[in-house]
Structure formats: C-alpha cells, structure tokens
Amino acid sequence: PRPARPRPPRPSSACAAASAMSDPTDTGLNSTSDIRTVVVVGVIAVVAIDLLFELFRYLVPGIYELRRYIASLDVRDFNGNPIPAPEVTSKWPLMWLKAVYKLHERDLRETEDLDTIMFLVSLKFGAIIFSVLTFLLLTILAPIYATGSNKNLPYNNPQYVQGIDIISLSNLPQDDPRIYATVAFDFVTAFVVAFALSMGYKKYAQYRARYFASANPANYAVLLEKIPIEFDSVKEIATLFEMIWPKTLAEVHMVYYTPEVDKEKKEYDKCVKERDYIEYQLSQEADQSLARKAFDLKRKEIYHVRQVELKKREEQYTTGNAFIVFKDKITASTAVQTQLWFRNREFQIQNAPEPSGINWAGMSTNHAVAPLLRVFVALFLFLMLTLWAFIITFTQGLANIRQLSTVSGFQWTSFLLDLPSAMITFIELFAPALLLMLINALIPIIMRALVSIQRLVSLNQIDRRTRNYSFAFYVMTSFFFVTVSGSIITQIQFILDGGDFFTLVAQTVPTQAKFMMTFIASQAAITFPLLLIQLPRILYRPFTRIICGHKTPRQRYNLNKFMSMFPYYKFYALASCHALIALVYSTMAPLICAFITVYMILAYFCMKYCLVFCYFHPSSGGGSHFRGFFQHMYIALYIKTGTMIALFTITTQYVPAFLELLLLPCLIASNVFIWYRYDRVARHGSVAYTVLEKQDEEFPERYKNMYESPGLRSFPYRSGAPFEPRSDMLHQREIGFESESSFDDSEYT
Questions:
Q1: How far from 594 is each of 138, 147, 232, 422, CA to CA, in Å?
Q2: DSSP letter, residue 708
Q3: CA distance linking residue 601 with residue 125, whole number of Å
Q4: pTM for this one?
Q5: Separation between Cα atoms, residue 358 and residue 360, nearest integer Å
Q6: Which residues have CB under 8 Å from 301's CB, separation 6+?
Q7: pLDDT at residue 732 above 80?
Q8: What is the DSSP letter of 707?
C-alpha cells in the first residue's frame, strides 16, 4: 500500500487555492465522507418533513381526505355510480404507511382510474429494476473497479482518483482488460431493463384492453378533425357515416366556436357566486339593502340566460371538428383504425377523449395557426436552453469551487475558501443540487403554458406533450449540460495547460456521478415528502379564508378543490429523467443505483398515498402516460449505449466501443418487438376481449349528448333544489357547481 503522507495545516485564501489541485483529498465531493453527509442529511430531511406531515394531518384532515369530501357530496360518475372513497387512515404516526402498504393493485382496480394504476406500476417497476441492478453491480462490478490502479497515481495526475471514485470506471487505466467487465454488465443491464419493460408493457396492454371494453362514453365516440368544407354540417357527416356503417350511428355533434355565448355564461357564473354570498349574509342577519341586491343579481342572471338563448340562435361558426357517437364500441374502434378519406390530410379520425377531458378552447384554434405556434414554441425552447446552459455552468462552478479558484481568471473566487469548512461543504455538496432542483421546478409550469397555446383536443394530450417537452428539457439540462460542464470545470486547469480536451473530459465523465447522486438524493428527500404535505394547499387555505371567508358551500368546495388534480406530466418526466441518469452511470459508478432505488421506493409510497387520498380527477386518460414512460426508458438505454461508445472511442479503446455498438441493434430489435406484439392492443383494445367478456352492453342513451359543444348546452337548472352536486356527473365535471342555480325561479316569475 502507498505510504501515508503527512498533511500540513490547510492554508487560507490564495494559498489554499493554489494547493487545491496538488492535494485532491481537499476537494469537496471527492471524499467518501461527503456521500455519507448527503445520506445523513437526506434522512434527517425525510424525518423532519414526515413529522410536519403527521402534524398537519392531525390539524387539517380535510386536505388529506379530499376523496371522502367529494363522496360526501353525492358526486356520481358518467354511469351514475358514486365516487369511491377510501377509509380514513389512523391519525397515529406512520400508520398511513400501513394503509398504503395494504392497498394492493387488485384493490386499486376497483376504485382508481387507469392513470393512477399505471403511474404506480411505473414506479414499482422502476424500483424492481434498480434493486436488481444495485445487487448485481455492487456485489460484482464495484469490487472489480476497486482493484484498479488509478488510485495509486500521483496526486497531480489527471487520472488520479480517490474516495468513492475508487469503485467507478475512472479507477481503471486505459487498455485494462477489466474494462470488458463493464461491457459485459452493460449487456446485463440492457437485458434486465428490456425484460422488465416487456413485462410492464404486457400488463399495460391488458389494462388497456379492459379499459376499452368498459362502459365509458369515450369508447363509443370518435373525434373527426379537418372536415372538408363541403361536409361541414351535421346532415352531411351523418349521411356519410350511415353509408359506411349503416344503423350504427347514435349522434353527430359539430364543435362550434361560440365566444359570445361563453362570455354571457361567465357573467352568469359571476352573478351566481356573488348572490350565493349575499344569501349567506341574509341568513345571518336581515338587511333590506342586501335583499334588494340579491334580487337585482337574480334579474341579471335571468338576463344573461336570455342572452345566451338569443345568441345560440345566431349564426355559429364550426371549427372543422365533430364528435361521432356510435351505438356500440366495436364500430367506434373500427372507425378509428380506418382510412376514411382518399386525401390523407382530411377527415382525420382518432379516439375521443372522455367528455370531461376535452380541451374545448384548443379545438377552437385555427388549423392554419397551429404550425406557427409550433415554430414559436421551438424558438422559445431554444432560448430557454441557452439561458439554462449558463445557469447549469454556474451550479457546476459551485460544485467545483476549489478547482475553479486555482484557474487563471477565476482566482477571485478564492475568498470563498476562507469560509468555515461546514459552509464550503454546503456550497459544494448541497447548494448546486438544490439550485438545480429549484429551477427544474419551473420547467413543467413553463412547458404547460407553451403547450396550452397549441391546438390540442384533450387535456390528456396537453399533459402528454408537456411531459415529453419536460423530459427532453430535463435530459438536456440535468444530464448533458451537467455532465459536460462539470467534466470541463473539473479538468479545466489541465485543458488550459495543453492537455487533450476530449480525452480529459471523457476520463472525467464517470466522476460526475457524485453530483448526480447528490442531486437524486435531494430530489428523493425533499420533492416527494413535500408533495405528501400538500404544502401549496396548506398555505392557500388561510390566505383565501382571510380574503374570501369561505362561508358558502360553493366557496368551501372551491377551496377544497384547489390543486386537486395530480400533475402526472411533471412526475413522469422527473422519474424518467432520473432513471436515465442512473442507467447511464450505472456501470460507470454502480453506487448510483442504490440512490435511485431509494428514490423510486420513496416516490411509490408518497405518490400512492397522495393519489388515493388527496387527489381527485374528473377525467382519465386511460393510462396513456405509461406508453411515453416506456419509450423514455428505451431512450435512456440508447443514450447509455451511445455514451459508452463515445467514451471508449475517445479514449482509443476501440474493441470495447465495437462491442458496445453491437448492443445497439439488440436494443432496437427488442423495442420493435415489444411495440409489434403489444402496442396495437394498447392503442385500440381488443374486439375479442370486448365480445367474449360480454362487455359490449346496450348503448346507454345518456351518452348521446355528452359531446355537445358547451356553447349549445342549456343551463342545469333544478328548481327549488339546495346547493349540492347534480347526479349527472357530466355537468358537475364540465360546467361545475359555479354554473348551478340554487334558487327557485318561481319566486321571480
């Protein structure tokens, strides 16, 4: 073993900066103790946030029992069935974990939508994949790396490693035969992930077949887009479809652009809300002026209702879209898979979303404007990437402040070395990861805003495109920018001294795993426990109570439904990106697999509790997010293989690079095989399943008018009824409580 070298006391300021490169044992993340610090701080953060959750769960139970509150209002789905509500969990600490553990997948099938089930299946498969990889890589590959010789090099050698880098690929010198162990485990990793994804997609196809066979209005309807002008009427479309599928048509609903009607309905809603509060005040004390104001508001409501009816009779503008409702699910599925017209760009047909998941505003966007919006979004994303590149470089400068302070032009940063050692550790260990996590929290919000202006017909399509944009942005910033900028800053002195740029960067890429571990640990310790607390809703309640009061049932409902829809697009993108980072670094730095395994397990339990108890979704996308998650995981395998090929090629290790190249067609073949075997059923369902399981029941007449344009619908009056949700879930979901009149019209006639 190398004899120990006595270390002099660390000098301060410029002296410390000058010695940092000569003594890398004093470089922040390069010590094993720093990883232990990350783990300890992460555990403390999880425990502290859980204590807050237990306190809030006791003090404000309504936030954590939203589903029971919705069920208490007698809310029904589109089939008239009551909304299922889970049992209240015990208020004792950590008993919520027991309740979540007891909720098996077969139980969730009876109470939850497919979006919830497939999201939990994604996290569960992620935990299984990385648990297997953690065991294999830490027990076999990590000891092989530990026998490498780069740890014995002089301190000033750019290939020198120490700390946890000893069990990484950086500890093996070039042309070391042990590198073939890395190649072998790349094949093993690819096989484990591909096999698990195959099993997951098979399960997804089975769930989708059951979903398409269920009693759901979306399974009886299709959406027709880009209708030619000569067919732009109900009569012409009905005639065409009756000729193709005789005696199967139930209803045709053209989608109309009705801005004036929508404006009058908003004014009506405003009057209803204001009158509700005045009626509440009158119930507390009699006041003639308030009674007169309530009467005037009622007159305004009647005026707006009359204006709506008048403007309905005026000329309506079609949007070139129509919903076709069939009498059976098999015909609807057949229509979606049929080339309807001889011009490919006309009469485009697709599955209809659920009635409560239609993006009516997006369907009003002109087809000619849609390409211009896409160009605008692309330019905006390019500007965002440019800005994020500077931000990421700054975070990596913080993570390598000791190395940076020795470089000519950056020696002014050496004043930071005069700070207490605990502060320097925080700056290098936690500040970059927390800053990156903070700015990443803005990405889904920005992407959602960009996607919402595009022409998309359903809320589920908006969510899926937001997920894809967010995932691509996360990969570019949190993976590529972090890896490249971190590697350059780590070796910047050797690069300036004339070293080969690409070789030095390639040799340093595995050492960036330390930052990735800290980043993943920070996300696991903060993001998911904070989601469990429901912090935005906790902060929103006292603020709005002061301003609005929340005295009426309508106000209390609006308070409880605030942020009650789970952002699948955000957490799918996060999980996919972090899985990609872990897969790329899995064989370069095996310890990262342990971090991502804990990440997936924490996410599974926290998300499961939130989805079952704290959130309520009026519409379902049928679990279609899983299809994107599956493809993102394969993209991760492609990027991992490409990264290894590039690293081996740059370092002139051509035989391992060629072997890695052989893995690429294997991955493509497995991807195509899984798509070919399961994707058609996942996209369209199975006629055999629908018929053999006797799921093709009689056409429910209530489905006929569920796809009528909002501007043409009548107000959901119920004379003399108290404030409560309608039994018809269509109105509760799409029009909402705000559009209901809770007063008897007869007193004003």
A1: 9, 21, 59, 26
A2: S
A3: 10
A4: 0.86
A5: 6
A6: 268, 271, 272, 275, 741
A7: no
A8: T
